[in-house]
């Protein structure tokens, strides 16, 4: 399957969606971010494993860091507002860098498939080392009432062992 040209309006709209989403996540405007998700969102981050060449897999079957829907994502956001969200008190400083965006026509005119690379910089407090997470993402965007929304996201981290204290962030 060939990606859409970079000057195709669908690619430009998909790229704009990802940039706007990164802004919302960096600013920790999570209610606005939840509004960019479809009601049937699936947000998945499989556990990566290191295997021999030719093994035929690089994720642990049935295991995921995240395998969430709109309800669970909404609950995570709600928890961040409580005194029980000690992993984010004080809040992290985040920067989502989105690059290598390629857009593909979807199953119909209302769907786009978007591949991107992401580098997340996260700083917490004054004493902890900053953390980086590098990953590839495969998204399905759906046009809903004249705007794009995220319907599916699969996140493939580039490391088998995550070097981050916790995963209280969205990628």
UniProtKB/TrEMBL annotation:
Pfam families: Ring_hydroxyl_B (PF00866)
InterPro entries, A to Z: NTF2-like_dom_sf, Rng_hydr_dOase-bsu
Species classification: Bacteria, Bacillati, Actinomycetota, Actinomycetes, Mycobacteriales
Species of provenance: Mycobacterium shimoidei
UniProt entry tagged with the keyword Oxidoreductase: yes
Gene3D superfamilies with a match to the protein in the record: 3.10.450.50
Any one GO biological process: 3-phenylpropionate catabolic process
Family statement: Belongs to the bacterial ring-hydroxylating dioxygenase beta subunit family.
Record keywords, A-Z: Dioxygenase, Oxidoreductase
CDD domains: ring_hydroxylating_dioxygenases_beta
Any one GO MF annotation of this record: dioxygenase activity
Membrane-spanning ranges: none
Name of the molecule in the record: 3-phenylpropionate dioxygenase subunit beta [Rhodococcus jostii RHA1]
């Amino acid at each position: 399957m060939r990606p859409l040209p970079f000057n195709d309006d669908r690619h430009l709209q998909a790229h704009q969606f990802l940039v706007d989403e990164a802004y919302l996540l960096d600013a920790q405007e999570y209610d606005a971010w939840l509004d960019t998700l479809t009601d049937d969102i699936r947000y998945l981050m499989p556990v990566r494993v290191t295997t021999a060449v030719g093994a035929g897999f690089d994720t642990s079957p049935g295991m995921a860091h995240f395998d969430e829907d709109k309800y669970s994502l909404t609950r995570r956001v709600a928890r961040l507002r409580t005194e029980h969200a000690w992993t984010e008190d004080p809040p992290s400083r985040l920067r989502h860098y989105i690059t290598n965006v390629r857009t593909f026509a979807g199953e119909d005119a209302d769907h786009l498939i978007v591949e991107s690379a992401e580098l997340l910089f996260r700083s917490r407090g004054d004493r902890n080392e900053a953390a980086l997470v590098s990953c590839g993402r495969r998204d399905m965007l759906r046009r809903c009432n004249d705007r794009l929304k995220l319907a599916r996201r699969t996140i493939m981290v580039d490391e088998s062992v995550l070097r981050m204290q916790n995963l209280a962030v969205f990628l």
